[in-house]
UniProtKB/TrEMBL annotation:
<protein>
    <submittedName>
        <fullName>DUF4872 domain-containing protein</fullName>
    </submittedName>
</protein>
<dbReference type="Pfam" id="PF16169">
    <property type="entry name" value="DUF4872"/>
</dbReference>
<feature type="domain" description="Butirosin biosynthesis protein H N-terminal">
    <location>
        <begin position="14"/>
        <end position="142"/>
    </location>
</feature>
<dbReference type="InterPro" id="IPR026935">
    <property type="entry name" value="BtrH_N"/>
</dbReference>
<dbReference type="Pfam" id="PF14399">
    <property type="entry name" value="BtrH_N"/>
</dbReference>
<dbReference type="InterPro" id="IPR032369">
    <property type="entry name" value="DUF4872"/>
</dbReference>
<feature type="domain" description="DUF4872">
    <location>
        <begin position="155"/>
        <end position="324"/>
    </location>
</feature>
């Protein structure tokens, strides 16, 4: 039996930022979830469809674990990542870290976790492990999944060993903060401009603002893309709003990140980006509602309207990222007279 003491087991809206929050608070660094997401340059977009997929996928963030790598690099954190094909060594890796007093991040397939409500395979799920006994592991997951939760050691082993899209080989990781961590204000501009650069110049048309534009054209055909629109369209809408995205396909998180940044940094470009993402977040929720309505009613007009809004969003987010790409460290926000 081993349990790390002093764990702040607050759950949050998104799995990776939830785990990062647990690990960093144990290091004495308490940042909001939007700040973690933004400093990890987490926002993105992908439209993905292929012949072997049951239905198209809309994603709103960078690929699993890239956010963690970005955050660690930007903040100057020591990120120790361990992967192995051996279940025995995988468990030894986490047990050693816990015995040394370090909570551990795990990437796994949420399908196998005892407490998980939605039995869908997702190999990019991330949790924080802070203890175990003879039968159970003690984890921190999102608020939606219960925050501080337990699962059997058997189910945890299955989740870590799972293979498939986005899965990793028993990946575990720890974070160690330097003694002289700089002010968050110094991290803002590099994180924002890196995110903007990737969004504005994607390598393929399925990503970034080009991906949103493509989604606007393809979503109009979704009633013909499925043999069960009453199942697949509401499910797609649910994933946009409820599946750990924080709502609006992660745009709520990025909007709130930019709002926090405007309190720390005096930049007109930053304020422009925040205003546009506040508008975009509302529109993404409207798109999700229209997709769900189309599934329930089989009304193609709902999808046509969703496609029009996605076209507007492609232009709006491109404009927002163009402004954000010009954010500089600049002057701190001054308060008071």
């Amino acid at each position: 039996m081993s349990t790390v003491t002093g764990i702040d087991a607050r759950g949050a809206r998104h799995c990776e930022t939830t785990a990062l929050g647990v690990l960093l608070r144990h290091q004495g660094i308490d940042l909001s979830e939007p700040m973690l997401f933004g400093l990890g340059s987490g926002l993105s977009f992908i439209y993905w469809d292929s012949k072997n997929m049951g239905f198209p996928f809309l994603g709103g963030r960078v690929k699993p674990f890239e956010l963690t790598r970005n955050l660690a690099a930007g903040l100057g954190l020591e990120l120790l990542v361990q992967e192995t094909t051996s279940p025995r060594r995988a468990w030894q890796n986490v047990a050693t870290a816990l015995a040394a007093g370090h909570p551990v991040g795990l990437q796994l397939d949420s399908y196998h976790l005892d407490y998980f409500g939605s039995k869908v395979h997702f190999g990019g799920h991330v949790v924080a492990l802070y203890g175990y006994d003879d039968q159970h592991a003690y984890l921190v997951d999102t608020e939606q999944q219960g925050g501080a939760v337990t699962t059997s050691l058997t189910s945890l082993a299955q989740a870590r060993a799972a293979r498939g899209p986005m899965a990793a080989k028993h990946r575990s990781f720890t974070l160690t903060a330097p003694q002289d961590l700089p002010s968050p204000r110094e991290w803002i501009a590099p994180a924002i401009t890196a995110c903007a650069a990737a969004f504005l110049d994607p390598p393929i048309a399925n990503l970034g603002h080009r991906g949103i534009e493509k989604a606007g054209k393809r979503v109009r055909t979704w009633l013909q893309r499925t043999d069960d629109p009453g199942r697949d369209l509401p499910q797609a809408a649910l994933l946009m709003e409820k599946a750990g995205t924080g709502g609006a396909l992660f745009r709520n998180l990025y909007r709130d990140f930019l709002a926090e940044c405007t309190d720390l940094l005096d930049s007109g470009h930053l304020r422009t980006g925040h205003r546009l993402y506040a508008e975009a977040a509302t529109l993404w929720t409207e798109v999700a509602e229209l997709i769900a309505r189309a599934g329930a009613s089989a009304d193609a007009r709902c999808l046509a309207q969703a496609g029009d809004i996605l076209g507007d969003l492609a232009r709006m987010e491109r404009e927002a990222m163009e402004a954000l790409s010009r954010v500089e460290s600049g002057s701190p926000r001054r308060s008071g007279p």
